Amino acid sequence: MHVAIAGNIGAGKTTLTKLLSKHYNWEPHYESVDENPYLDDFYGEMERWSFNLQVYFLNSRFRQILEIRKSGKEIIQDRTIYEDSRIFAPNLHAMGLMTDRDFKNYSSLFELMEQLVSPPDLLIYLRGSISTLVGQIHKRGRDYENSISIDYLSRLNERYEAWITNYDKGKLLIIDIDNLDFVSNQEDLGSIIDKIDAQINGLF
Question: What integer best gives the mean pLDDT of the chain?
């Protein structure tokens, strides 16, 4: 069983990964944010560091997927390899923050990797409005995220919606987070778990 959580910056992916891993006794695989040597530089100078950052994420998530496959365990993953290639890299390219040459190189690398990876059994997409995302980003107070613009988040949200609309790699569960508080409200978390149970039961 491989479950993955997708969603924009500030959607609550890491928090929900922790809560679900505890509830189901799944092994969590987190996005390597704190160990990422490029994030501070990227948010300070996006055009200079975009390619380096995206290759780092791609490498990190490809390694994760190989480990997941090898482990044979029940896994929940914080963010997918598809988000890097379908949302973040194309967005940087469209904004003029990644050169044509670098984007072509990155895309070629992803296409090679994609042939060797399997999609998750269940993808959970956390859908949130810009105001919700901004509120949650400010609440967690990561210094390097202070410079994230509303325009950047909005562009990412548009790409997420386009990607999810056409997602066909497996089961998909969309959760609207605008009126949910799955951290403090057990009923909200319970409602998410009920929806996941229904999806999982349909897998077997």
Answer: 90
Catalytic residue among 78, 168, 188, 194: 78
What residue numbers bound the domain in which 122 lies? 2-201
Residues 6+ apart with CB under 8 A from 197: none
Band (pLDDT 50/70/90 cuts) for residue 119 is very high
Check whether 147 has a pLDDT greater than 70: no
Q: How far apart (Å, rounded) are the C-alpha atoms in residues 91 and 69?
A: 29
Catalytic (active site) residue 78: yes
Mean pLDDT for the stretch of residues 143-161: 83
Which CATH number goes with the domain that contains 26? 3.40.50.300
Give me 131's structure tokens: 């105001």
Q: What is the pLDDT of residue 34?
A: 67
Could you give the CA distance from residue 108 to residue 106 in angstroms, rounded to a whole number?
Answer: 5
Number of domains into which the chain is organized: 1
Distance CA 23, CA 19 (A): 6
